Each structure stands twice: as structure tokens, then as C-alpha cells.
Amino acid sequence: MPYWLAGERLTGFRLENFIQRGQESISFSNQQAFTHDVMFAVPFANAPIITATIASGAGAAARWSLRVTGVTTTGFTIVVTSPTSGATGTWSGVEVNWIAVAP
Predict the structure, then answer these.
(1) So what's the pLDDT on residue 60?
(2) What pLDDT was estimated at residue 86?
(3) Which of 2, 11, 17, 94 registers the highest number of CB atoms within 10 A of its CB?
(4) Tell me, which fold does domain 12-101 have in CATH?
């Protein structure tokens, strides 16, 4: 875990080695599941802990599930799936927010 000394300046460069965040715009047509790859701006020393959420639970994204897979030091994959087996959906610019924190 990183430590900072009292009075030490926290710079964006230093923090990006431990925390990164982003927003992905997801679009697809007539899919039951969809994957989207995310690459970090700066690789982590070890695979980070990721939290991701669908920004809106309304409209096309209602009741869809989101999970994160394939986490590495350089990126991860967002997987969204339909709430009903066999049902398809269409997303147009649905925002997914994520944050990655070094372990």
C-alpha cells in the first residue's frame, strides 16, 4: 500500500499509479450479451480491483447485468448481459462508469 509523508504533495502522476477511472459509452444492436475492452492509460504494477456500474438503470439498460472479467495490469473487459435468457436488446451510448484501485 502506498504511503505519503505529512506535507508531501500528491500529484496526478503519482496517484494514477494507484487509482484510475473512466466512463465508457456502450452501443450494440440485438444482442443477448456484449463485451467491451478497456485499456488503462498507465499500466498498474499488479492487477487492480475494479468496480463498474451502468450509469442509468432506465430505458434500454433496465435490469441488465454488468460484470468485469479478464482483469490484468493493462486493462479489463466489461460484460453486460440481458436479464432474460434468450432476450436481446439494443443499447445506444449507454454510459458505464468504472474505477480501478491498486491492491
Answers:
(1) 83
(2) 86
(3) 94
(4) Immunoglobulin-like (2.60.40)
Q: Which amino acid is at 69?
A: T
Alpha-carbon distances, residue 36 vs 3, 10, 18, 61, 76 (angstroms): 34, 32, 23, 15, 9
Average pLDDT (36-59) is: 93
The length of the chain in residues reads: 103
- CA 33 – CA 92 distance, rounded (Å): 14
Kindly report the backbone phi and psi dihedral angles of residue 46, in degrees, each rounded to the nearest multiple of 5, phi listed first.
Answer: -135, 160
- Measured in degrees and rounded to the nearest 5, phi and psi for residue 97 equal -100, 145
pTM: 0.82
